[in-house]
């Protein structure tokens, strides 16, 4: 679905574990809604009935699976998310805000697990029917600080969050690399700031971007 074939706007929020994506996505949705936009907040893995089931499998700390098995589960969740939620909302002209999307697969399964990036990009294109974000807010934080936040919130881990620090460092370095490769789409925000400062910066980026597009939503 090329950008000019849809009337809505597709924004993703990406970053390592505990970067503050969910906190930002929720407050951004509220602020944009208050400014009169119709905003659909969604997330991966999840966002559909199938995605929710797949999420509980892929994150289950009691299950073992190969890196490719893990990848197929994320891709299957994404495929259902795209055709059940994202495309209809974009066709309806909404601003769609997704807490994680295809960059997460490149960062976690590609840079983190070491799977082939070109193959992952090609599988991402298939799973998404070519739907790529118009704008991505990438929250940048060290793996150590991000994990400290998630562990302070809950002692209950998950299969990916519990991976070792070196894995999360590769993931976060991967996100930085992806941002460097696509500076037009991906805007990096310092996630070590207070949540209010992160929101202010994100709002500036989004509003400027919407103004430049003549606000499609
Ligand atoms: N995954 C996902 C893949 O491996 N491949 C894929 O393709 C996809 C889609 C689940 C896991 O799946 C992996 C990545 C993940 O490991 P998830 O549910 O999005 O994905 O997992 P997390 O990133 O771990 O989600 P979290 O909810 O734990 O982290 P968030 O959303 O980044 O952080 P948030 O907002 O929940 O905040 C965490 C804590 O920090 C506080 C919050 O209050 C909360 O307690 N906080 C701040 N504290 C200080 N300053 C700030 N600016 C703060 N912002 C939030």
Give a verbal description of the structure.
This protein has a five-stranded parallel beta sheet with strand order 2-3-1-4-5, sandwiched between helices. Helix content is 55%, strand content 13%. It has a single domain, classed as Rossmann fold, CATH 3.40.50. The chain starts with 8 loop residues before the first strand and ends with a helix. With 217 residues, it is α/β, with parallel strands linked by helices. Bound molecules: P1-(5'-adenosyl)P5-(5'-thymidyl)pentaphosphate (T5A). P1-(5'-adenosyl)P5-(5'-thymidyl)pentaphosphate binds next to helix 1, helix 4, helix 6 and helix 8.
The first-level CATH class name: Alpha Beta
Number of domains: 1
Task: Write out the strand line-up for the largest beta sheet, numbering strands in chain order.
Answer: 2-3-1-4-5
The residue ranges in which pLDDT falls below 50 over 5 or more consecutive positions are: none
Shape label? globular
> Proportion of β residues?
5-15%
State the helix count: 8
User: Pairing-aware structural class of the strands and helices?
Assistant: alpha/beta
For CATH, the homologous superfamily is named as P-loop containing nucleotide triphosphate hydrolases
Largest sheet: 5 strands, parallel
- Estimate the helix proportion, in percent: 40-55%
CA-based gyration radius: 16 Å
- State the CATH topology: Rossmann fold
* Arithmetic mean pLDDT: 95
Beta-strand segment tally: 5
């Amino acid at each position: 679905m090329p950008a000019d074939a849809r009337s809505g706007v597709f924004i993703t929020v990406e970053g390592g574990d505990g970067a503050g994506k969910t906190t930002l996505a929720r407050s951004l949705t509220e602020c944009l809604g208050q400014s009169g936009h119709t905003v659909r907040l969604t997330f991966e893995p999840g966002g559909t009935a199938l995605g929710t089931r797949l999420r509980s499998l892929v994150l289950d700390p009691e299950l073992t699976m190969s890196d490719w098995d893990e990848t197929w589960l994320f891709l299957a969740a994404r495929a259902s998310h795209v055709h059940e939620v994202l495309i209809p909302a974009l066709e309806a002209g909404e601003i769609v805000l997704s807490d994680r999307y295809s960059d997460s697969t490149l960062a976690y399964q590609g840079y983190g697990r070491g799977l082939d990036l070109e193959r992952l990009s090609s599988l991402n294109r298939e799973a998404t029917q070519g739907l790529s974000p118009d704008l991505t807010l990438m929250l940048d934080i060290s793996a150590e600080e991000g994990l400290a936040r998630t562990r302070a919130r809950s002692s209950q881990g998950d299969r990916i969050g519990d991976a070792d620090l070196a894995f999360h460092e590769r993931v976060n370095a991967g996100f930085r690399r992806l941002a460097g490769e696509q500076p037009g789409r991906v805007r990096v925000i310092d996630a070590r700031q207070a949540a209010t400062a992160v929101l202010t910066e994100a709002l500036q980026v989004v509003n400027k971007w919407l103004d430049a597009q003549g606000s499609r939503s």
